[in-house]
Known about the structure:
The chain is mainly beta. It has strands at residues 14-16, 23-26, 30-38, 42-49, 52-57, 61-75, 80-84, 88-91, 96-112. It has one domain (14-112): Sandwich (Jelly Rolls). Helices cover 0% and strands 63% of the residues. Strand 3 (30-38) and strand 4 form a beta hairpin. It is globular. It starts with 13 loop residues before the first strand and ends with a strand. 13% of the residues are buried.
Amino acid sequence: MALYVAVNTAGEAEExxxxxxxxxxxxxxxxxxxxxxxxxxxxxxIWEATPGKWHIEYDEWEFCHILAGTSIITEDGGxxxxxxxxxxxxxxxxxxxxWEVLETTRKEYVIRL
Length: 113
């Protein structure tokens, strides 16, 4: 087993959409290249979404680094935050709100359950 793992979009992407009942507007489509699944609930890879808006709820901790595109992330009862290429942020367990993709958005992620 290699101890160096490149994080890229080589290989087949998993395709998806927001969970049933969570879409607010549009028809967002997701592609995910999950390149790491480690014991203890650690995941890393690249995720991409097309324009649309949906409700999000986080039970996990996630670090995100935006590679391309523009999105607006709004916490329930909080301010809307515009994220673009180069932005990095953490969504902590318990975060609830919405994710709106204005321009197809691609991010690197690390998730800890």
